[in-house]
Automatic annotation (TrEMBL):
It holds the Pfam family AraC_binding. The keyword Transcription applies. InterPro entries: AraC-bd, Homeodomain-like_sf, HTH-like, HTH_AraC. Keywords: DNA-binding, Transcription, Transcription regulation. The keyword DNA-binding applies. Coiled coil: none annotated. One of its GO terms (molecular function) is DNA-binding transcription factor activity. Residues 180-278 form the HTH araC/xylS-type domain. It comes from Paenibacillus soyae. This is AraC family transcriptional regulator.
Length: 281
């Protein structure tokens, strides 16, 4: 079991587009009705036993062994273990941040839907890893953010597998340390004009080999990963600094304004100005 941990970020969550709110696992008991839901989005994993989530509109979802359930924030609910089972061993991780809502929108119909998790062991391993990172204290908030994003990608991948032409060089529970260093470099310098050649060189690979390894391990190209990171950060900037100009946001992301506007609209379906205006209303 992993006792409930409430993440303490020492206010570092502000610059993070995605951060862990709490994490743990235990023998789940009945939770009384939460009329206003939980303040953060949650991903649940059932390792053993069975339990049911019930919602105010009458919907019910039963989770059995090796199933997952993605619960949006502020969804009124209550849940309880099945009396026919000895124990409901339930793992959970809650997340927030400027990118959290965008990620939930991307996950689409996977939310509020009990699903089989074909990659359950990998998800549980990632849950344990997040717990251990959070247990080390607020100085690990950035690492917890990276791991939370990877876990959500793993969950999505399990539900929407894609065919790949190459195999992973490192299994999921033994990640390539060079790639991890490259991802840390990207997260530390995403607001600069990153060159793929420099990132590849820092990881110790040629550009072509680094590109192949990155796609095999993360499911997207390095350029797509950087763009996704920048887009999530742009949402956080608009939220944290009401009235900030589009030019200023683009500058903070290390992007040309015209390119930023084009990529923002491609990602979210509206222009940055429209998003800022909607947020102000």
């Amino acid at each position: 079991m992993m006792p409930f941990l409430l993440a303490e970020h020492a206010n570092i969550e502000k610059p993070l587009p995605l951060y862990v709110f709490c994490v743990g696992s235990h023998e789940q008991k009945e939770i009384d009705r939460r009329q206003n839901g939980y303040p953060a989005h949650q991903l649940f994993l059932t390792r053993r036993g069975k339990g049911t989530f019930r919602f105010d509109d009458g919907r019910e979802f039963t989770l059995t062994r090796r199933m997952a359930f993605l619960l949006p924030a502020h969804s009124g609910h209550h849940y309880r273990p099945d009396e026919s089972e000895d124990v409901w061993d339930l793992g959970f991780v809650a997340f927030q941040g400027g990118a959290a809502d965008a990620l939930m929108a991307q996950l689409g119909d996977l939310a509020l839907n009990a699903v089989e998790a074909p990659n359950f062991d990998q998800l549980w391993h990632q849950l344990e890893a997040i717990w251990h990172v959070i247990n080390q204290g607020s100085e690990q908030a950035y690492e917890a953010s990276r791991r939370m994003y990877d876990m959500l990608l793993t969950f999505m991948e399990g539900q929407h597998p894609v065919s790949r032409t190459s195999k992973k060089v490192y299994p999921a529970d033994q990640p390539n340390p060079a790639l991890q260093s490259a991802v840390r470099l990207i997260h530390d310098h995403y607001d600069e004009r990153l060159l793929l050649s420099n990132v590849a060189r820092a990881a110790g690979y040629s550009v072509q080999h680094f590109h192949r390894l990155f796609v095999a391990n993360y499911g997207v190209t390095p350029q797509q990963y950087i763009l996704q990171l920048r887009m999530r950060r742009s949402l956080q900037l608009f939220e944290d600094y009401p009235g900030i100009t589009v030019d200023r946001v683009a500058e903070k992301l290390g992007m040309d304004t015209s390119y930023f506007i084009r990529m923002f609209k491609r990602t979210y379906g509206i222009t940055p100005k429209q998003h800022a205006k909607n947020g102000a209303n």
